[in-house]
Write a structure and sequence with these properties.
Distance between the termini: 73 Å
Helix content: 40-55%
Structural class: alpha/beta
Number of helices: 27
Radius of gyration: 36 Å
Number of strands: 29
Shape: globular
Strand content: 15-25%
């Protein structure tokens, strides 16, 4: 522990007189104390460490609720491991975000009537850095507000100088090893943002367009021709072939013949390729390698030429002939009119299909063939596949391993060039005199002359690297790579990566690929995949829909503890989850339940000495004391199991069930008389159970638990003597007390049975009833006073009379007062009359031959089941009336 760890805990601004927990009164002070004390830094324990490198959020604005969910899950694991005594590192950071941040700042400039080209590269980058310096601290403040226990002494940013050097080193090494090359290949292009973008940034949307069927005449002048269906007639001028499926009997005889491309009168072959879908249109498709990814691959296989008729601005090029200079949309309309005049447009019909567009601006994707830098996956990918197959990297839930393999087994080379100014500029220079490509050595300065022709007329590639290229290095560059640092030796590979399934391929796979390449070791042992957070009703959050939930507003409205619990509650591994005000309100109620239970215990301990919160009580304990100790041990075992399985939602459900029901609703109620009488064993049990509970709850809700723990330990000092709950030992479970659980469980069932009868029959809450238990007197007689108090009854052990129910084979009867019995009888008689009428209808329906013989079998079966249910209901109501006398 560091010297700073001796800082005294802040005096709580929240007194026990407050009936509700006030998050704003304690959160900021507690977090500053934790951070200043060095508690977030890994200890020097000589044990295997536990480490998570925070998935870096994009510096494009404030954190969103997806960050809140993911990072809370990680913080739960981090706090749990820290309490288990593991040297624990939770390393924070942020991503420069490439295109996303570039677009955000361009939008801000547009509000001032400016664009990046007016500013020039240097001034535009100054604006980008201003944005980063504004929003990075804001995001980090939001992380603190959520209570995430990050080691702020190790904060990383993907554009830090050492990270820039690492990316440069990585590029140069890959180039020297033959993994990088520059080539003309098809890419996604955004005509609005003027850059290529990745598959991840393609948003597929359903829309209805026109499907035009066009006739391509035979080149030999024969009658008819080949009918082609297309949604993009403007690209007909770039066609270099017509393709059919080799097994399509409709077209086999025409393979090898030629047709004429309309308008441009180009003679092209009819070829066979298995990529063609025979079910689309006529089964024959136009092949345009310059403007379609599938056609580009067909073109490579058949050695077809590439024609580019649309430029980067979305305008038709001179190669488009008569369409030159038009926009894509204008060219489409013009081409349709030309085809009509030629008599080659045979059909127009609506088609609903999936269209790709840039997710940043919703501009329709324009596939273009451009000279770009590419990363070859041929040698880099197989080790990453083997790492998961062999179990060196384990993906949880395991069903995502299949998805991972499907993508990795069909991996294509990676376009790493982006035509923007913000990011890691590609460390390659080009000679204008001899076209030499110059990539310097690792530690060499930027080149100033061409090594081939000695020309000084060289310039650096203006493009930057894809954001994922630098993010792929995140687990090892954050720890110091390419230097051999103590952190890199100690914490790499990291323990867990937690991320959404949406980026399993585009980030996780690439981190595995590059970690294995640079470190000869996987970057993490476990990939814990979670779903996305949706709003109530299951709708995906979207800024355009205006339904994005701000986690900071949640913190302001409900507090960090309730926000954390609300985000985690009800979540299954790998599944999408929902967040709603109702869910958060319930979480706040749980936080208040913890607060008020703690207030009760602390009040009971007031003025009493000799109690140690971490000392397990022994001696002549009451049944309730024995039971709650056993239940606390059971909760500890279950929590450990859930956390080991990364089932944080189940852990949250267990924590709520244990504390709210077993501790607060049952044990504290049972213990109140003894606590008020200052019974030392009860007080010791109360202190111990609260201490154990706060430890179990701490990873979920750190602020309320730390606040209570500090006050508890002042009232009942612990032998452990740790300064903070986050450094306290995780509880260890002892053997189950089966006898206590059986006996107290029977008592709880009897109390519930009496309460249920009271409620069902409208007994006034303030009224005391006579209750009779016909069961094991050895269990119930010693607990008579407790049962009477909890059920508000006078308890007897004779058979008695009244409304009866059976639990665990024990008959429980409640005698109702005359007024209660009269009201109950009237209600039962009404319900019985209704039930008898429904029973009569069911019997008459089934007695009709027409129904039984002609109705569908499942309908008849359901009606028979309904009849049986109504017969049981009538018998029960008749029995209840008899019980009333």
């Amino acid at each position: 522990m560091t010297v700073a760890a001796k800082l005294k805990a802040p005096e709580s601004a929240l007194g026990l007189a407050e009936k509700n927990f006030q998050p704003a009164a304690v959160e900021a002070d507690l977090y500053r104390w934790w951070e200043a004390s060095g508690y977030f830094q890994p200890s020097e324990e000589k044990k295997p460490p536990f480490s998570i490198i925070l998935p870096p959020p994009n510096v494009t604005g404030d954190l969103h609720v997806g960050h809140g969910f993911t990072f809370t899950q990680e913080d739960i694991l981090v706090r749990w491991h820290r309490m288990q005594g593991d040297p624990t590192l939770f390393l924070p950071g942020s991503d420069h975000a490439g295109i996303a941040a570039h677009i955000v700042v361009e939008r801000e400039l547009a509000k001032e009537g400016l664009d990046r080209f007016q500013l020039g590269r240097e001034r535009f980058l100054e604006e980008m850095w201003k944005w980063m310096e504004l929003y990075k601290p804001r995001m980090y403040a939001q992380m603190r507000a959520m209570g995430w226990s990050l080691d702020w002494t190790r904060t990383a940013f993907t554009m830090d100088p050492d990270k820039q050097k690492a990316v440069r080193t990585h590029f140069i090494r890959l180039f020297r090893e033959g993994h990088l090359y520059r080539a003309d290949r098809i890419v996604h292009w955004c005509v609005k943002d003027q850059t290529t973008y990745s598959d991840l940034e393609v948003e597929h949307v359903e829309r209805t367009d026109t499907l035009w069927t066009v006739r391509y005449p035979f080149a030999d002048g024969g009658k008819g021709g080949v009918r082609i269906a297309t949604t993009r007639p403007e690209t007909i001028v770039a066609d270099v072939a017509v393709a059919v499926h080799p097994d399509d009997v409709r077209w086999k005889a025409l393979i090898g013949k030629h047709v004429i491309v309309p308008v441009v009168e180009r003679r092209v072959p009819i070829i066979a390729d298995e990529a063609v879908d025979p079910a689309f249109g006529t089964g024959a498709v136009k092949v345009t390698p310059g403007h379609d990814a599938t056609d580009f691959e067909i073109g490579k296989r058949h050695h077809l030429p590439i024609l580019s008729v649309i430029d980067t601005r979305g305008l038709m090029t001179p190669a488009a002939g008569a369409l030159a200079g038009l926009t894509r949309e204008q060219a489409r309309a013009d081409m349709v009119q030309r085809l009509k005049r030629l008599g080659l447009l045979e059909q127009e019909e609506p088609l609903t299909h999936s269209v790709g567009r840039h997710d940043r601006c919703s501009t329709i994707d324009e596939p273009l063939v451009l000279k770009q830098w590419w990363c070859s996956m041929e040698r880099l990918a197989p080790p990453a596949v083997d790492a998961v197959r062999s179990g060196r990297v384990h993906i949880i839930p395991e069903r995502f391993e299949k998805t991972y393999f499907q993508w990795m087994d069909n991996l294509r080379d990676w376009n790493i060039s982006r035509q923007i100014w913000w990011g890691h500029q590609i460390p390659a220079w080009y000679c204008r005199d001899c076209s030499e490509v110059v990539v310097p050595d690792e530690d060499a300065p930027d080149p100033t002359r061409c090594p081939r022709c000695d020309s000084t007329d060289i310039h650096q590639d203006p493009d930057v690297l894809d954001t994922w290229f630098s993010s792929a290095l995140w687990p090892h560059t954050t720890l110091g790579w390419p230097k051999d640092t103590p952190d890199l030796r100690r914490f790499y590979p990291t323990s867990v990566l937690n991320t959404a399934y949406e980026i399993l391929f585009f980030w996780v796979a690439r981190m595995i690929i590059m970690g294995l390449h640079n470190m000869r070791e996987v970057p993490f042992r476990i990939v814990f995949v979670n779903g996305i957070v949706r709003v109530a009703g299951g709708e995906k959050m979207s800024k355009t829909k205006g339904n994005v939930v701000d986690p900071m507003q949640m913190v302001r409205d409900f507090g960090a503890d309730a926000t954390r619990f609300g985000l985690i509650s009800g979540v299954a591994p790998g599944a999408d989850s929902q967040v709603s005000p109702e869910k958060l309100d319930h979480a706040r109620n749980l936080v208040n339940k913890v607060w008020n239970a703690g207030r009760f215990v602390l009040s009971a301990l007031g003025g009493v000495s000799g109690i140690a919160a971490d000392a397990r009580p022994t001696g002549a304990l009451s049944l309730a004391d024995r039971w709650i100790l056993s239940r606390a041990d059971a909760a500890t075992r279950e929590a450990q199991t859930y956390l080991e399985r990364f089932e944080t939602g189940e852990y949250a459900a267990l924590a709520e069930r244990f504390f709210w029901s077993e501790v607060a609703d049952w044990y504290l109620e049972a213990a109140k008389p003894s606590a008020r009488a200052k019974d030392p064993l009860t007080l010791q049990t109360l202190a111990y159970v609260l201490d154990r509970s706060l430890r179990l709850l701490h990873p979920l809700m750190p602020f309320v638990t730390e606040t209570l723990a500090q006050q508890l330990w002042r009232a009942a000092p612990t032998a452990e003597a740790v300064p903070s709950l986050m450094l306290a030992a995780w509880p260890e479970a002892q053997a189950q007390d089966a006898d206590a659980e059986r006996r107290f469980g029977a008592l709880m069932d009897v109390v519930r049975a009496i309460r249920n009868i009271r409620q069902e029959h409208g007994v006034e809450p303030s009224a005391t009833v006579d209750a009779f238990v016909d069961g094991d007197r050895d269990i119930f007689e010693p607990q008579r006073q407790l049962i009477e108090r909890l059920a508000d009854c006078r308890l007897e052990f004779e058979p008695g009379s009244g409304i009866a129910t059976v639990v665990r084979g024990i008959t429980v009867r409640v005698r109702l007062a005359a007024a209660d019995a009269g009201a109950a009888r009237a209600r039962l008689e009404r319900e019985l009359a209704e039930a008898r009428e429904q029973l009569r209808r069911s019997r008459e329906l089934l007695a009709r031959g027409a129904f039984s013989e002609k109705a569908p079998p499942d309908v008849v079966s359901k009606e028979r089941a309904r009849l049986a249910e109504r017969e049981v209901q009538v018998r029960k109501l008749e029995e209840d009336l008899r019980k009333l006398g």
